[in-house]
Structures are given as C-alpha cells and as structure tokens.
Amino acid sequence: MSPNRVVKVDIMEVDSLSGPESATGVLDVYLSDGREFSLVAATPAWFEDKMAKLGLDFYYGHSILFLSSLKPDIAKKAAKELAKDDALLCQYDTPRTTLPRVLEEFKQRH
Model's pTM, two decimal places? Predict the structure, then answer.
C-alpha cells in the first residue's frame, strides 16, 4: 500500500493585513485516500498583531500551523510534511472555524 499523498490544498477564508506575509486562513487539505482536513494557519506577523489588538498575553487551544507566508506553494509544502504522520494531521484538524473566531472566543473566556 502506498502512503497517502496530498492531492490538493485550498486556502479558504483569508484575513490579510498586508498580503500573504501577514495573513491567516483555513487550509483545506485533500489526501489521495479521500480524507479531508481543515487546518488553521497564520503567519507570525498576523498572529502577533491580532494578539496585541485583542490585548491577549497568551493563547492556548486549537493548534495553529504557522507559515512564513500564506502562499499556495508554502501551504502545500507544509501540508505534505504534515501528511507524513496521520497523528499530526489529526492534531491540527480544526474543522469549521477560523483563527480570528478562535481568538475572539478565547478572549471572551479569559
């Protein structure tokens, strides 16, 4: 049996401050065996700015995939790396939410 491979990565629900180097989005990852995963991704610049705007000193919760840029080639490269280990894809799988929503909900609880 051959290992699963990433056949497609879509970048959805993008929130950008100034282009792909300061952005967040949801990566929909499709594997050759038919499974699909939704990964919350962000650049460190976007995350830092959002934390400051919300006045958060810390965050814990959903796993975030950090990328240097929210460009398709970088997103696919990261997805291929995660697809080497099913446990990682399951850990980062965060269906039906976005990082702005996650951080707003976290702020309300803390």
Answer: 0.88
